[in-house]
Amino acid sequence: SSVKYVGEVHKFCFCSECSRPMVDPVTVSACEHSFCRACVENFSQCPLCGQTSMTLERADKTLRALLGELNVECEKCPWKGYRFQLEEHVKLECKGFSKQEVYTFQD
Question: Does the CA dihedral 34-39-42-43 come out positive or negative?
Answer without folding.
Answer: negative
